[in-house]
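step: validate -> pass
step: tokenize input -> pass
step: predict -> running
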Amino acid sequence: MILAVFLAASSLPNDGATVEADQVRIPPPIRAMLDAAIASGNEGEVSTIVKYARAADPASGDAVLRIAEEWRAVRAKDREARIVRAGWTDLWTGRAEVGGFITTGNSSTAGVTGILDLTREGLDWRHKLRGQADFQRSLGITTREHYLAAYEPNWKIDSRQYVYGALQYESDRFFGYSDRYSASAGAGYSAVQTRALTLNLELGPAFRHTQFTDSTVESSIAARGSVDLDLKLSPGLSVSQDASAYLQRFNSTVSSTTALAAKLVGPLSAQVSYTVQYESEPPIGRVSTDTTSRASLVYTF
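step: predict -> pass
step: emit ->
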């Protein structure tokens, strides 16, 4: 249908149309749609106009492509200038999640959860911050208490490759440790980068220091790996899969979170997620696997 519109448009008179450098005229209806897409700043719409214009009329389609490429170049320069001028408190984007959870494993409880993710994209550096808290108290007794704080700087080698650092603190008395500190550095690679799907992989050496609730202390070299996958099923529905592992001589940890989010209105979404965390050598009296099911509202900014 869209192609038919372009075919019809290409047969219309070109009086008043913009004359390109090679004297190729763009049919007025096509030029009007291209101008509207550029004015909206929507990269996807601009690409669609170029695609169908080139299929309907290759001669004017090439001129449309040149205009789109010039617009992208100007847009890239403007973005670069804006990033250079930005202060440390600028350019942050993120998401705040508030909701409830149900756990199984070392504790079977229901409580409240809060998560804050922040990302700052610069020209050469990307900074990621994450904070998380799960808490439940019943009849004056705390039955669930999990805290996490993490910071990850990325130095971009190119559009796909980067070098990462990772610092993380965790506390979960019900999983058997009061404090756990982790540090890692390594290589990252964006294996897939499309509008619908992104896939990021990281791998590198790490060091972990854990203080268990039974007063034992463990420090060890480890290997860290992570997989971060995000898939847009439709404009208002997305699924994500985040997994990470710390493999070491003593207690190794593997965790995985699967989430499904549905857009409600504006920046607000509803999300359900399921997390599995496995500890290969938990303290005596603890089981190896914990699961957490969450239902929450997510605000994106």
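step: describe -> The longest strand covers residues 217-234.
step: cleanup -> pass
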